[in-house]
Amino acid sequence: MELENKNEKNKIVILLAHPDYNESEANKALIEAVYNPIDVDLYNLYSEKQYTVTEWANILAKASFVIFQFPFYWMSAPAKLKEWQDDVLNSLARTPAIAGKPFMVATTTGWSQDAYRSGGKIGFTMDELLRPFQAGITYAGMIWKTPLVVYGIGTANSAKNISIGVDQYRNIVNHYIETSQESAW
């Protein structure tokens, strides 16, 4: 697999996996806080546009940072993200397209943070529930970064939780934009 010229501007690549994005309050607010076409490329895995593994390799080869963004339900991500991992990540694991790239999960939960602990409603922490993602990303040769989890989207505090999550996400993405611009000089 031959990669395109990697001298183009490095961008943050967000892979959005939300089956009902247009109805999403939280994930839509997160994307609106960080998306700008100069520094961030957004790929909605639920759109009609389909890419080949070679096209994904070229997209990811130009990335300075990769983010999986999705609502967390049934203790995992939506099916399209799992399909992408099976088809694309499996093929690109340990290749120059993704090796050494920083990676992060940005996810939203319906329950409050208290539910995600031993003895809580869910009974496991988000770190424990995201462990399969961490294992796969690490195996693929990418660098796992601390996930952004926006808790409590289905609670009475959802507006406050979304606002806090938006600020945190914007700070993280802006940090990587600045870091990639500095390394380009």
Write up what this structure looks like.
With 185 residues, this protein is of the alpha/beta class. The chain has one domain (11-184): 3-Layer(aba) Sandwich (Rossmann fold). It contains six helices and six strands; from the N terminus they run βαβαβαβααββα. Strands 1, 2, 3, 4, 5 and 6 form a six-stranded parallel β-sheet that branches. Strand 3, helix 3 and strand 4 (102-108) form a beta-alpha-beta unit. Helix 1 (26-34) runs parallel beside helix 6 (158-184). The chain is globular.
Net shape: globular
CATH superfamily: Flavodoxin domain
Give me the number of helical elements: 6
**Mind telling me which CATH architecture this is?**
3-Layer(aba) Sandwich
Tally of individual domains: 1
Order of helices and strands: EHEHEHEHHEEH
Low-confidence stretches: none
Mean pLDDT: 92
CATH topology: Rossmann fold
Determine the strand fraction and express it as a percent band. Answer: 15-25%
Number of strands: 6
User: How does the helix and strand content classify structurally?
Assistant: alpha/beta
CATH class (first level) name: Alpha Beta
Determine Rg (CA atoms, Å): 16 Å
Keywords for this entry:
6 helices; Rossmann fold; 185 residues
What's a concise summary of this model?
The chain contains six helices and six strands, in the order E-H-E-H-E-H-E-H-H-E-E-H. It is of the alpha/beta class. It has a single domain, classed as Rossmann fold (3-Layer(aba) Sandwich), CATH 3.40.50.
